[in-house]
Design brief:
Layout: H1 9-12, H2 19-26, H3 35-49, E1 58-63, H4 69-80, E2 83-87, E3 92-96, E4 99-103, H5 110-118, H6 131-144, E5 149-153, H7 163-180, E6 183-188, H8 200-205, E7 206-211, H9 218-230, H10 242-252, H11 256-273, H12 280-285
Parallel strand pairs: 1-6, 1-7, 4-5, 5-6
Antiparallel strand pairs: 2-3
Helix pairs in contact: 2-11, 3-4, 5-6, 10-11
């Protein structure tokens, strides 16, 4: 299908589907390995592959809401979530879980943290059990399955607890990290960095990576070219042209999630109208889409400094 050589190979099979089916595909999750995302993945991989230490490296990934932080950690975790190891002596296949991704509790509650960890091991437990028993179960399973990295998404949720609860949560994470020699990876909005100020020990333990808003530069144009290959449109969209790229940037505000939403809606319009490409006119139809609002003032940590 030479006329569709602008599309990635795995997208080609969808081009023969009906309009309704292609529109449905637009709303599926998609992975775009842009430079900043790859840098974070490489950092996580590097940390994971290092030998266990008495004081393991910890990392906090922050950015505005809807900037693709969760997508990045899920892309990383799905590769390392389970590993099978040959045991030649016992002729068995043992299952390990090098990486466990969990959601932070709705507030800084240590018992809920253990419950969220246990949920990923698919073992029976009672949420009514005392915290000490849940802690024993969680640490036992983390050891048994040789977990080396615990990723906690939405870490900013822990700010909703009292000062004492926040300190208990951070002390628990520090203890888990030290006892089990596991790397703690926190993910959240920029507010999540405030939890590190609970104690100077936490701030010294965690490196910080900031995912800033996009700028209208060469990296942004490369991102748009990646979208051209992944959106199931029959014609080549000139997203990187000055007028279209500028309009996409101004409407999305440089927010990755808002850009994705904008391009999905533009692609849907292109399919429904039979245009089969995203034009400047189509983009302007969606100028009412508002970018995600959030704090913009935090120092960007260079990824190559980790």
């Amino acid at each position: 299908m030479k006329q569709y050589d602008h599309l990635a190979e795995h997208v080609l099979e969808s081009i023969v589907l009906s309009d309704a089916e292609r529109i449905n595909i637009l709303y599926e999750d998609r992975w775009i390995g842009y430079q900043k995302a790859i840098a974070v993945l490489n950092t996580l991989t590097d940390i994971l592959k290092r030998p266990r230490k008495l004081r393991p490296e910890c990392l906090l990934i922050v950015g505005d809401s809807n900037m693709g932080k969760t997508t990045i950690i899920h892309e990383f975790a799905k590769e390392y979530y389970t590993n099978r190891v040959d045991d030649m002596d016992m002729q068995l296949m043992s299952l390990t879980k090098p990486v466990i991704p969990i959601q932070a509790p709705a507030k800084a509650n240590v018992k809920d943290l253990y419950i969220n960890i246990l949920d990923h091991f698919f073992v029976p437990f009672r949420v009514t059990d005392p915290e000490s028993k849940l802690r024993y179960q969680a640490t036992h399973l983390l050891r048994k399955y040789e977990t080396k990295m615990l990723i906690i998404d939405e870490l900013h949720n822990c700010l909703s607890g009292s000062a004492r609860q926040r300190q208990e949560m951070m002390n628990t994470l520090k203890t888990l990290s030290n006892e089990l020699s596991i790397n703690i990876i926190g993910v959240g909005t920029r507010d999540a960095s405030l939890i590190l100020h609970t104690d100077t020990q936490y701030a010294s333990r965690f490196e910080v990576i900031d995912l800033p808003l996009w700028k209208l530069d060469a990296d942004f144009l490369r991102l748009l070219l990646s979208y051209v290959r992944l959106l199931p449109l029959k014609k080549l969209s000139n997203l990187a042209s000055q007028e279209i790229a500028t309009s996409l940037y101004e409407i999305s505000g440089g927010n990755f999630g808002d850009l994705n939403r904008l391009l999905v809606e533009c692609s849907k319009e292109a399919i429904l109208t039979g245009t089969e490409e995203i034009t400047l006119e189509i983009v302007k139809k969606f100028k009412w889409l508002k970018p995600t609002e959030g704090a913009r003032n935090i120092r960007t940590i260079q990824l190559n400094s980790i």
